[in-house]
Amino acid sequence: MDTTLLLAHVDADGSLPRAALEALSAAKALGTPVTAALFGPSVAQAAAALAGTGIQKVLAVEDPALAEARYATDAAAAAALAKASGATVVVAPATSRLARVMAGVASRLGGRIDTHVTGLADEGGATVTRWYYRQRIEAKLRRKERPWVLLVDPGAMPAATAEGGPAPAVEKVAASLPAPRTKVSGLRAPSSGEQTIRPDAKVLLVAGAGWTKKQPDGAPHPDKAEALILSFLRASGASLGSSKSLVDQAGEGQKVFEFMTHLNQVGQTGSTPRHPKGLATCCHGEEPHVVGWRFIRERRAVNLDASCGWARGKADVLYVADAFAVMEKVNALLAAKK
Ligand SMILES: Cc1cc2nc3c(=O)[nH]c(=O)nc-3n(C[C@H](O)[C@H](O)[C@H](O)COP(=O)(O)OP(=O)(O)OC[C@H]3O[C@@H](n4cnc5c(N)ncnc54)[C@H](O)[C@@H]3O)c2cc1C
Question: Does ligand 1 have an atom closer than 6 angstroms to the CB of 90?
Fold first, then answer.
């Protein structure tokens, strides 16, 4: 029978990443007791966050060098924890920090890795669910090789509920971390303006190329569009997605919003975010774009065109309206609520 380990790092403020509690839900679905393993400069706060989740024991590697994400030290800590646990299945959240190191960790353990896991089950053995071909085909996988490292996509599972109570016992594990050769001197965000990609946001606002096109008065109003989009993002905490056409305009020398890059692009050649709700504005709703909405549970769109793609079964609600007017009103309502 498999033995299961939940492996995670602690966040910069010492807390447990939410994605770790989601990965724990996935791990528990295997039906065997789960041990946790954490690494960071100090794991006490994160271990306490596991109280009442069914986790009895937390293996820990604590070292000041683990305050910063660094391949050499993270991989050494994760491999030491997985080895000390003896687990045959190692479940980890696909945070950017762990996504970077876990393939190397699986290799150090002599095991295998599968990524983009969206579910686990015991179906006569550990069985993994994941999607292929830009989220069009869902498959179930099993492997004979062990240890089997599984990176669970954030947003795919509900977070395990921590009912509180005494914190699980923490058992220190010795890891020989290589002396760091790199030092983090600061952080630089990919977009020149503000950070607009917020994976944990409840709402995704998608901006399409229509925002920069000629409007009914015969002129484009990109500055007004920029102000409306930014006000909405600031007031609502929503994440910003884009159609390909809008972000591609930068390459053609046309006006494109300063705060937007190709990282915002949603769709077949972009990302597949997992927000509970999505609102598309000035976006036509073509299939290569909407395929990126696979996991958005409630979809709404604002478009002047009553025959746009969203009207053809792709949105739950389509408002046939001018997005400039709609977002102005929405922003006024949000401002009045504050
Ligand atoms: C191989 C391939 C891969 C692709 N991958 C992707 C991908 O990953 N992501 C992606 O997004 N696209 C992708 N595309 C492109 C995709 O097919 C569409 O061309 C693109 O999504 C269109 O972007 P859009 O809807 O913003 O622009 P447009 O098609 O120009 O639509 C603009 C919309 O804005 C509306 N509009 C204008 N003004 C207003 C207003 N004031 N109020 C309300 N509505 C208004 C118009 O009615 C129109 O429907 C791909 C295409 C191919 C061939």
Answer: no
pLDDT digits (tens, 9 = 90+) for 77-94: 999 999 999 999 999 999
Average pLDDT score, the chain: 94
Domain-wise residue ranges, the chain: 4-172, 203-337
What dotted CATH number matches 4-172?
3.40.50.620
Bridge partner list, 177: none
Residue 236 has pLDDT above 70, yes or no: yes
Please give the pLDDT value at position 188.
Answer: 74
Question: Which ligand 1 atom is nearest residue 207's CA?
Answer: 26
Distances (CA, A) of 56 to 37, 47, 48, 165, 294: 11, 10, 11, 11, 36
User: Token pair of 181, please?
Assistant: 């050769």
- Atom number in ligand 1 closest to CA 305: 47
Architecture label for domain 203-337: 3-Layer(aba) Sandwich (3.40)
Task: Report whether residue 265 contacts ligand 1, using a CB cutoff of 6 Å.
Answer: yes
Lowest mean per-residue pLDDT among 102-106, 118-122, 148-152, 154-158: 154-158
CA separation for the pair 109, 103 (Å, rounded) = 10
Q: Output the pTM of the full model.
A: 0.81
Same topology between domain 4-172 and domain 203-337: yes
Atom of ligand 1 nearest to the CA of 285: 25
Residue 299 CA to ligand 1 centre (angstroms): 16
Examine the pLDDT at 193 and tell me if it is beyond 70.
no
Residues 6+ apart with CB under 8 A from 107: none
